[in-house]
Structure formats: C-alpha cells, structure tokens
Amino acid sequence: MKTENNINIATTSEFQHVQGIISLHRSRALQTVNNESLLTAWEVGAFVSARLKNSAWGSKTVMQLSEYLRAQDPTLRGYSRSNIYNMVLLYDTYSSLQFVEYKDSLKLNEFVQPRTAQIVQTVSGQLQSQNEFVQFETGQIVQFQTAQFPIFLNLTTLTNHFEILNTCKTIEERIFYILYSHKERLNIKELKRCLKNNTFASLTGNKHNLSKGLKDMYPQAVPMLKDTVFVDFLGLPKRHSEKRLQHGILDNMKDFVLELGKDFLFYDKEYPLQVGNSTFKVDLLFFHRGLQCLVAIELKTGKFKPEYMGQLEFYLEALDRDVRRSNENPSIGILLCQEADRSVVEYAMSRSLSPTMIAEYERQLIPKDVLQRSLKEFTQFLAE
Prior knowledge:
By secondary structure, the chain is an alpha/beta fold.
C-alpha cells in the first residue's frame, strides 16, 4: 500500500510536469499569435499611412479597402474602416519614438515628464527583469526607423492598444497603460475600467499621502499604490457604515483586488491580534506579492483624522512582532477613508517612520474630464 502511494505521488509529479510543458507552449503560441497580429497591424498601418500622407488615398479609399478585404475573404475579421484607421494611428504614434535603453530598464527620452518617466522606468524595469523582453547596452540610444516594429508593443494585445490609443491623448499615458496592462494582465474590460477611473493619475500623482517611512523603506512601492480607490461596484449610498463598506468589499473581493492591483492577495477579515490581555482586529489583511509583505487595511467612512495613524501603526507593530515570517518584509498599513484634507494628510505623513499611507475611496466613478481638470489644477498648485 505504501509502495502504491509512492507510485501515485511520483506519477502525479510527472503528470504535473507534462501539464507544465503544455502550459508553457500554449502560452508561447498565444504570445506568437498576438505578436503576429500586432506586426500585421503595424505593417498595414505603415502602408496606409504613407498613402494617406502623400494624398494618394483618401478616406473613401480606406473604406473601399475594407470592403475589398471583406469581399476577398468573408472570414476575415478586424479590418473595418475604423480598425484600419486604428492601425494607422498605431503606426503613426509609435513609429518615430526615441528611447534611451539601459541595462536594467527602458526609459522614455525627452518627451516624458520627469515624474511619469520615473514611473515608466520603474514598471518597465520590473517587466524587463521578469520577462527579458529588452536586451541592450548601457546608454545606447535607438531611433526606431520607418516600419521598424518597437518590441515593447508586444506587451499587450492589439485590442488593448486600440483602446489605449483612442482614449489617451498623451504619449506618457499610452506608454503607462501598455506597461500597466502587461503587469496586471488586464483584459479589455479591466483595461477600460482603469482608463475610466484614470489609474494613470492615481499612480503617478504627487504621493503626499505616503509616509516618510514607506518612501524610505519601499521606494519601489510608489508606482504600485493608488491614492484613490473607486468602489462604484459596491453601490454604497452617501451615508453608510464601516460594516457595510467592509461587507461590500468582501462580497466583491475580485473587483476590489483588481482596483487595488492584482499583486494584492486577500488573507483574512477582522484578523485578530493578541497583545497582552487585549485582542485587536485588523479590518482587512492582505499579502502583496511584489513587495513580499503583509498589508493591513483599516476602513474609515468619515474624514481622515491624525489619531487614526496611531491605531494603524500599533497594528503594524503587532503584525511584525507576532505574525510576520522571517522571509517577509515589514508590514505596510493603508488607511482607506472617504475623505482626507490634503494639508492634514501631509502633516500626518511627513514625520511618520512607519510604512503607512492614506488612500481615499470614491463611491462613484468620476467623469474623465473632471479628473483631468483636477489634475491640471493640482499641477498648477504645485508649480505655484
């Protein structure tokens, strides 16, 4: 019986190995299909773009091309007039970009604002180290020639590219969402949500809401943590309790994790911390794969108060002493509240040595024009 069990264990291990081989090659096949789709769109876009620019073709000709392709092969999909123009936009947008290529990362050159460049460099550096999609010598500058396909476009799907191109107006945003789509493995539905709630602004803001301790201890975390979380999927009324907020999150955990970032793994609710003769409970406890640490989230339905930080820091101390494992990094605390005064937050964070942050949650998605206007006003505020 023992021998039979050993054979079963060994056989299961071999079966898993075969499954791994299949998964690997299936993933490669899907990536190859995606790469070829992108390259096809790139070359079609280059061809049509050249004819539109020298006035050899007009919009009517593009429509005729779409109809011709459909007539020649009725099974052909994805070559409507609008999609062909999307291919032109793909080519025109990325065909002449200049990059500075580094040994450990990819950094946009010149046309990216410093703060955004830092985010892009950080994210792309992580992607490069994980997937080895870029190899080059330190300091080498590459100018993509006409019709030369930039390999970083392979990081997401053609459908995602079209959505990004038609929604984002700046090159910084477009590059950001390509990298973010890859890192978070976003499908088109998930990407549309990120575009709608302006994840770019949330992750590339001033980050006044991060404590000094968090910035010092986890400098790489800056582009991973949002300062605004949209929980429109909870259907919360204007006035609601912390229990309703918590239960809503627990009932919609998949959507909540997508909003936070897919590196967040849910651990437990009301996690008990025994200190002396007293028991304290963390509202929500997560583990962050990228940062390799526990993340305690405290929920507050009212306005942020500085005294909340003492409670959160106490929880982090208890987690690090009694729960954290030796191979894990120090725990991070996130105070998720409905409203926070910018000045109060900045004062509260400036001297805090614990790795904490304050994030606000929004019950409803804000129209993008309002978000862009707010971002512009904030930029002007910083400049002044």
